[in-house]
């Protein structure tokens, strides 16, 4: 079963510390992400969620500790091994980051052009299949300026999936979306996890999304400079005794 304790860990983070100019953002961060689960990184503003994501995809080097993705240690990888590993993960940034002068199909073709020998016609076919998976089959010829914010997020996910990565990282997917569009995106994430077996690592502080999509989560905290909770978000909401965790899930203001 995906996400069960028996499922294989596809990401292992051990005793990770992030520091900038001697300032500790977090330390002693240790967790596993299991194959096929939707894993959420949550916490208040400035606690280091994006910083953790950037460590996990190799943009930042750990001050301490280690990160292993699909059985490979991220740190110390040479150029070719690093590119090979990065090909196996997909990332969707908050903005969707689509190229404005290219159609959606062309946007999704970019990673295929960079990383495969597929001819243009085959790239276009793959791009249309990916757009179909995110519900944008009819929008392949449209430019980013011609689509809504929700569609841009879906297109960003389709592009992150271009090379069929087993792991997808999503940075604040609901940011800037209205609640209905956001709920639609949550449903899509769950559907992709279920139908394709893709493992998702999602950074978000949207409570509705966390409860809708998360199999498991960790919560970071700025004051604690590290993890203050790990587990099923619904159980944390109902059972956590940590006042900060309770306040987050119940939207209470701490005195
Ligand atoms: N490259 C960097 N250099 C220096 N400081 C950084 C760098 N990246 C992040 N930080 C600092 O690390 C802290 C955590 O930032 P981060 O963006 O990871 O938080 P976050 O939890 O994602 O916040 P938000 O929800 O507001 O996006 C902040 O104080 C930020 O200024």
How would you sum up this structure in a few lines?
The protein has 255 residues and is of the alpha/beta class.
Keywords:
alpha/beta, nucleotide-binding, ABC_transporter-like_CS, 4-stranded antiparallel beta sheet, binds adenosine-5'-triphosphate, single chain, ATP-binding cassette domain-containing protein, globular, transport
Topology:
Elements: E1 9-20, E2 23-34, E3 38-42, H1 49-56, E4 64-69, E5 72-73, H2 79-86, E6 89-92, H3 104-115, H4 120-133, H5 149-160, E7 167-171, H6 179-196, E8 199-203, H7 207-213, E9 216-221, E10 226-231, H8 233-239, H9 243-250
Parallel strand pairs: 3-8, 3-9, 6-7, 7-8
Antiparallel strand pairs: 1-2, 1-4, 4-5, 9-10
Helix pairs in contact: 3-4, 3-5, 4-5, 6-7, 8-9
Bound molecules: adenosine-5'-triphosphate.
Structure description:
This protein has 255 residues and is an alpha/beta fold. The protein has helices at residues 49-56, 79-86, 104-115, 120-133, 149-160, 179-196, 207-213, 233-239, 243-250, and strands at residues 9-20, 23-34, 38-42, 64-69, 72-73, 89-92, 167-171, 199-203, 216-221, 226-231. Helix 3 runs parallel beside helix 5 (149-160) and helix 4 crosses helix 5 (149-160). It is globular and about 55 Å long. Adenosine-5'-triphosphate (ATP) binds next to helix 1.
The kinds of small molecule bound in this structure are: adenosine-5'-triphosphate
Residue share in helices?
A: 25-40%
Structural class: alpha/beta
Name the shape in a single word.
globular
Counted by DSSP, the helix tally is: 9
Strand line-up across the major sheet: 6-7-8-3-9-10
* Helix/strand order, N-terminal first: EEEHEEHEHHHEHEHEEHH
Residue-averaged pLDDT, rounded?
90
Spans of at least 5 consecutive residues whose pLDDT stays below 50 are none
Total beta strands: 10
Strand fraction equals: 15-25%
Q: Biggest sheet, open or closed, and with what strands and sense?
A: 6 strands, mixed
**Cα-based radius of gyration, to the nearest Å:** 18 Å
Distance between the termini: 42 Å
């Amino acid at each position: 079963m995906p996400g069960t304790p028996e499922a294989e860990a596809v990401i292992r983070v051990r005793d990770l510390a992030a520091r900038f100019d001697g300032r500790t953002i977090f330390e002693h961060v240790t967790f596993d992400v299991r194959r096929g689960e939707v894993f959420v990184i949550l916490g208040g503003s400035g606690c280091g969620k994006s910083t953790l994501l950037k460590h996990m995809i190799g943009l930042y080097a750990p001050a301490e500790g280690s990160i292993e993705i699909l059985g490979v240690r991220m740190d110390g990888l040479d150029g070719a091994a690093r590119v090979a590993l990065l090909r196996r993960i997909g990332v969707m940034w908050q903005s969707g980051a689509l190229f404005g002068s290219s159609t959606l199909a062309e946007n999704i073709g970019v990673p295929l052009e960079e990383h495969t020998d597929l001819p243009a016609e085959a790239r276009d076919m793959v791009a249309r299949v990916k757009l179909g998976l995110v519900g944008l089959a009819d929008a392949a010829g449209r430019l980013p300026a011609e689509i809504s914010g929700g569609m841009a997020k879906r297109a960003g996910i389709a592009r992150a999936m271009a090379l069929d990565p087993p792991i997808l990282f999503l940075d604040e997917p609901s940011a800037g979306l209205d609640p209905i569009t956001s709920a639609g995106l949550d449903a899509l994430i769950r559907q992709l996890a279920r139908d394709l077996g893709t493992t998702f690592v999602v950074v978000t502080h949207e409570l509705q999304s966390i409860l809708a999509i998360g199999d498991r989560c960790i919560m970071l905290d700025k004051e604690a400079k590290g993890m203050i909770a790990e587990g099923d978000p619904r159980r944390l909401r109902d059972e956590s005794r940590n006042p900060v965790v309770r306040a987050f899930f119940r939207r209470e203001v701490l005195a």
